[in-house]
Amino acid sequence: MIDTHELKKRDLYLNKIIAFQDTEPVKVVTGIRRCGKSSLLKLMVKHLKETGIAEEQIIEMNFESHKFGKMSADDFYDYVKVRVIPEKRMYLFFDELQRIDDWEDTVNSFRVDFNCDIYITGSNAYLLSSEYSTYLSGRYVEIKMLPLSFSEFLYFHGFEIKEGKSLLGGTRIQAVHKDGETYTLREAFDAYMRFGGMPGIADVGLDQEKAMVLLDGIYSTVVVRDILEREKRRGQKRITDPVLLRKIILFLADNIGSSISVSSIGNTLVNEGLLENGRRKGSPSAHTVQNYVDALLESYFYYDIKRFDIKGREYLRTLGKYYIVDIGLRNYLLGFRNRDSGHALENVVYFELVRRGYDVAIGKVDNAEVDFIAAKTDDKLYVQVTESMASEDVRRRELAPLQKINDNYEKIVLSLDTGLDASYEGIKSLNLINWLIGKA
Fold it and tell me: What is the per-residue pLDDT for 389?
């Protein structure tokens, strides 16, 4: 059991849960394994106790534990029923609930039978697939959790942001570690791009060998428990080839931010010799590849992003993109390299936009592409991402798509080297790292 005194805050998510405390919907926290869902429930329990809720009003069950892992739905109901205190409001916390068959009926029974507030986590989108969510009759709210943002990474690893004056009269931002060492913000960002945002890495430190062991464990658990085992529990045989699954995982990791059609993945794997054509009759069918990709999306290992025609104002079916949930996992899969660092930066920006509550799409304007259109109810943002704006050719390439958009919403280019100008005809050139920590 985690010691709550050692838990680091994830206020972005905790505040979302607190906002729904004591409301009817079941609170469902989803996200890839080990991104902090269990700790978030612990933080919520801590919050309840700090606000006067007695310990006997709180029931916690982690279905990854051997103690609960073999329970039937009836056992589950009985365990909770005998612990419910009549005339008291109960707070029920169920971690990794997808491991219990027919959990939906049981949770719905708790809602009907007891005076309770329910919080659950799951590491697979199947938890809330349409056939399951109907059991809850839409009475749930989903809190989507991601690995650490860059700001959270700094906090988890003991860095504090300090601002001072530079010799040229501007502002200099530094990352000061708890051991007293001072680093440039770029050095801290390079560490984030290497190790990624899995919270567990903060426990082992920024040690490459230890981090890789931890990431290997996360990868193996996602593949085995959330994809292969889940298929067995569902009684389906869509995902039957672990070798093909790994090849597709590696292909998508190698092609984050690239336009991909699912139908082309199998052919590409064969053409590049990654699949032995002799072992199968030709390449895997597009339907088979789609099933494997869907399983990776459901386990929150990858996220897909659709293309939006800005002038036609419609989503397009052709050539979406995929981003990996954590850049550290990508480094674990492919090794460390710099040859496609531009796509890695895009990956980080995409998830930061999602964290900030935007719906994100790729923008198509005529024959040009805008990296991201980020939309909220009353706001829209157009974003280009590039490593540097120092060269004239790059500036022309990055600015051209934005210059074709005629509305008045904010347009920005994020880069590690912004060049000399802060804006170009109203298009802002912002330092990507400063933007990530809210200083741009």
Answer: 93
The rounded distance, in Å, linking the Cα atoms of 222 and 123 is 8
Separation in Å, CA 304 to CA 278, 297, 325: 31, 7, 10
Q: What share of the chain is helix, strand, coil (3-state, %, to 5)?
A: 45, 25, 35
- Sign of the Cα torsion 331, 334, 340, 342 reads negative
Q: How sure is the predictor about 275, in pLDDT bands with cuts at 50, 70 and 90?
A: low
Judge if 130 and 175 occupy the same domain.
Answer: no
Distance CA 317, CA 263 (A): 13
pLDDT value, residue 268:
83
Quick: pLDDT tens for 382-396.
999 999 999 999 999
47 and 174 both lie in a single domain: no
Note whether 139 and 158 are same-domain residues: no
Supply the CATH number for residue 395's domain.
Answer: 3.40.1350
- Is the same domain home to 192 and 111? no
Query: What contacts 395, CB < 8 A, 6 or more positions away?
Result: 389, 419, 424
pLDDT tier for residue 132 given thresholds of 50, 70 and 90: low
Q: Which domain holds residue 200?
A: 150-204
Rounded Cα distance, 250 and 254, in Å: 6
Highest mean pLDDT range out of 7-11, 80-84, 290-294, 390-394? 80-84
Contact, 37 vs 98, CB < 8 A?
no
Residue 423 lies in a domain: yes
Looking at residue 148, what is its pLDDT? Answer: 98
Mean per-residue pLDDT for 292-297?
93
Q: How far apart are CA 239 and CA 248, in angstroms?
A: 12
pTM of the model: 0.93
The answer to the question of residue 290 being in a domain is no
Q: How many domains is the chain partitioned into structurally? A: 3
Query: Do residue 24 and residue 63 come from a single domain?
Result: yes
CB atoms closer than 10 angstroms to residue 393: 7
Nearest to 362, CA basis, from 423, 416, 317, 296: 317
Is pLDDT of 4 > 50?
Answer: no
Q: If we measure between CA atoms, which residue out of 229, 256, 437 comes closest to residue 344?
A: 256
